[in-house]
TrEMBL record:
The keyword DNA-binding applies. Residues 72-99 form a coiled coil. This is MerR family transcriptional regulator. CDD domains: HTH_MerR-like. PROSITE patterns: HTH_MERR_2. One of its GO terms (molecular function) is DNA-binding transcription factor activity. The keyword DNA-binding applies. It comes from Actinocatenispora rupis. PANTHER family: HTH MERR-TYPE DOMAIN-CONTAINING PROTEIN (PTHR30204:SF93), REDOX-CYCLING DRUG-SENSING TRANSCRIPTIONAL ACTIVATOR SOXR (PTHR30204). InterPro entries: DNA-bd_dom_put_sf, MerR-type_HTH_dom, MerR_fam. Residues 1-69 form the HTH merR-type domain.
Length: 243
């Protein structure tokens, strides 16, 4: 049979057959005198095997390994690994659906609400109330949450959890308002070190230590570009740097 007939028999395209030839997944039959390949039933059987394995979710590299060792043992190992991968994917999809359900149950979803559930709980306790500083704070926290790996995200939100404490939450509106008032102030404004001290008293010790870690000072440089000179000076005081 010709390549088109082979492809139709197995339910793939001729382009797929040629691709499998190129990858070495399917032996290429010798061309006849007229230049055409002549495929036999055994070629259809091999092509059907490749299709079945790819439909199970194996990559083409994995299919090649399986076909190179036809004893079945390696195929079982590959299928077990595939099953474990699918289980992890299923768990991740379940977590994503739980997050979507929570967002949909909240009424009109906000784009910034699509953060991890732990951070969402922290952000609910951070008042914005028209404060530019508070809004920037939320944006920065959401950015860090989005770019972090799962383990890093969990550690990061653990640092923030104490901010949800009612006593701390009650102090935040005043602190944000004072930071807003420094938007156009000079870095030498006497309110700068006072506000830095009050912020340090409010922040969890672990979070403050992370902010003062020299290895993480890049965050201060980036944040300073979004703040007024006096506001940036507050965070330099807070991080233990030079005002």
């Amino acid at each position: 049979m010709r390549i088109g007939e082979l492809a139709a028999l197995v339910g793939v395209t001729t382009r797929t057959v040629r691709h499998y030839h190129h990858l070495g997944l399917l032996p290429e039959p010798t061309r006849l005198g007229n230049g055409y390949r002549e495929y036999r039933l055994r070629d259809a059987v091999e092509l059907a095997r490749v299709r079945r394995l790819t439909e199970l979710g194996l990559s083409l590299d994995e299919v090649r390994d399986v076909l190179a060792d036809d004893r079945g043992r390696e195929l079982r190992e590959v299928l077990e690994e595939l099953d474990a991968d699918l289980a992890r994917q299923q768990e991740a999809i379940g977590a994503q659906r739980d997050r979507l359900a929570a967002l949909l149950a909240a009424g009109e979803p906000d784009p910034d609400a699509a953060v991890s559930p732990d951070l969402a709980a922290v952000l609910r306790g951070l008042p914005v109330a028209g404060s530019p500083s508070a809004a920037l704070d939320r944006d920065m926290l959401a950015l860090i949450d989005t770019g972090a790996a799962p383990a890093e995200r969990a550690a990061f939100t653990a640092l923030l959890q104490p901010l949800a404490d009612p006593d701390i939450a009650a102090r935040l509106p005043d602190l944000y308002a004072r930071l807003d008032d420094l938007a156009d102030a000079d870095p030498t404004d006497p309110r700068v070190p006072v506000l830095a001290t009050d912020l340090a008293d409010c922040l969890p010790a672990e979070l403050l230590a992370a902010m003062r870690d020299p290895r993480g000072r890049t965050w201060l440089d980036e944040l300073s570009r979004e703040l007024g000179p006096a506001q940036a000076a507050v965070f330099r005081h807070l991080s233990g740097g030079t005002p």
